Amino acid sequence: MNPILFQINKKPKSSGKPGIPKIPTNNAIITKNGIEGDFNYFRNTKKKNDPDMALMILSMDIIQNLNQEGWPVKPGDLGENLTLSNMNYSMISPMQQFRIGEVEIEISFKCDPCMTLKHLSYIGNDKIKDFIKTLVNRRGWYAKVLKSGQIRKGSPVAKI
Fold it and tell me: What is each CA distance from 58 to 16, 91, 115, 142, in whole angstroms?
């Protein structure tokens, strides 16, 4: 099967609330800064909107593996903007370029797990260290936007 965009996830800036889990939407406008209407506190404040971190990508195989290991993760929970299906996470690497709908992206680097994940209802402070260890090298990939445009849930994902 060919890779597809399984889910688009975003969350607006909400005072006093964590940026995860992100909320699904059926379509989105992607700019060089990422998804319109999405706010990432770390990227915005600590990384000065680094264009190499415009989007975060995760594949469904990671979510399914985490579920099998007893972590009830759903698409959007880990802060990813784009959840891809029919794509093996281990086959993604820096500098790869993909077309998703009208959008073109380039993979930058892996996203490290962070303490923000403790805000997921099934994690909390008592399980966060174990969860972070579980997510090392599996949290997702950052990507920069090479070509802006619109994407829709179910859009094909093609390597370019």
Answer: 26, 12, 18, 9
